[in-house]
Write a structure and sequence with these properties.
The chain has 302 residues and is α+β, with helices and mostly antiparallel strands. Helix content is 46%, strand content 18%.
Length: 302
């Protein structure tokens, strides 16, 4: 019996210190023993007292309470999936189980069954990304919903065709209308839309796209610089011009600084010019940025 109880502790430590009543009983714990040695966390869920509370622990607790018919959802799922703009906050879950006797922090949405594609992230059951995006798109501003969608597209969590399918299949969700607009803007099925890798890249593209006198650039253009393949945020191949935005997160290290200079030199050797702009340039002096791009395009056209 002692060995089985030790096994129960091991299981709990893989579940953020939590154990369901079913797991505990299978390991030889009686309800009386649980009340003596464990803390009651939720109905049918117990916590090892030596494990500190956390958001992930509460998320796991909700899923253990509901069993196989429960998954983290809405903004909580978006946070667990690390979608841009969403952080640990309110805990939401979809469940086939009634939310009786739950604390106020547990927000449970009753469903008949879990959606196909429900999986696990960090051992916690979570709604699939395409459903999560449907659930949260109406909870934030349109531009924030767009950032989350682009983040999921860039990371390969969803595709445009997958999102179009989700709209048609699960169209009753609150975020349907807004997400439909976002997909239309991105071209939906069959589009060659390339999601930006950063907010700064997106700001630059929108700035350039709004300038009617500039030719349309290629986003995230790949080119062989004589030594290796390089990727640029925007490029005009016919003018041999590439543009990069230098955000501190990706260009602020000594290694990145050296790599940028090497890349620029190699590009110059194959008769390409590289323009670099910072956040301050794009956001605070956009007219100057457009002027530099416009002038360089004219020079390269000669």
């Amino acid at each position: 019996m002692t060995d089985k109880r030790i096994d129960a502790r091991k299981i709990a430590f893989t579940q953020y210190g939590l154990l369901s009543l079913e797991q505990a009983e299978a390991a030889g714990w009686s309800k009386k023993g649980l009340r003596t040695s464990w803390e009651r966390f939720l109905p049918g869920v117990y916590r090892a007292p030596e494990v500190e509370p956390s958001w992930l622990q509460s998320a796991m607790g909700l899923c253990l309470w509901g069993g196989a018919g429960t998954a983290l959802s809405h903004s909580a799922a978006a946070s667990l999936l690390r979608l841009k703009g969403f952080t640990e906050g309110d805990l939401h879950a979809v469940s086939t189980k009634r939310d009786q006797r739950l604390p106020d922090w547990a927000h449970v949405h009753r469903v008949r069954e879990l959606c196909p594609g429900t999986g696990r992230v960090q051992a916690i059951r979570v709604t699939p990304p395409w459903i999560t995006l449907l659930d949260v798109s109406h909870l934030v501003a349109p531009n924030e919903a767009g950032r989350a969608l682009d983040d999921a597209l860039r990371r390969g969590l969803v595709s445009l065709s997958q999102m179009a399918w989700a709209l048609e299949t699960f169209g009753g969700h609150s975020g349907t209308a807004r997400l439909r607009i976002l997909l239309t803007e991105r071209g939906a099925i069959g589009s060659r839309y390339v999601p930006p890798e950063s907010d700064l890249e997106e700001y630059l593209y929108k700035l350039v796209a709004a300038a009617a006198d500039l030719p349309e650039p290629v986003r995230q253009y790949r080119i062989w610089d004589g030594t290796q393949w390089r990727r640029f945020d925007l490029a005009w191949p016919e003018y041999r011009l590439a543009v990069e935005v230098d955000g501190w997160e990706t260009h602020g290290t000594r290694e990145a600084f050296q790599n940028d200079r090497t890349r620029d030199a190699n590009m110059l050797a194959i008769r390409w010019r590289t323009l670099r702009f910072t956040w301050h340039d794009v956001v605070d002096r956009p007219a100057w940025v457009l002027g530099i791009i416009r002038g360089t395009l004219l020079q390269n056209a000669r």
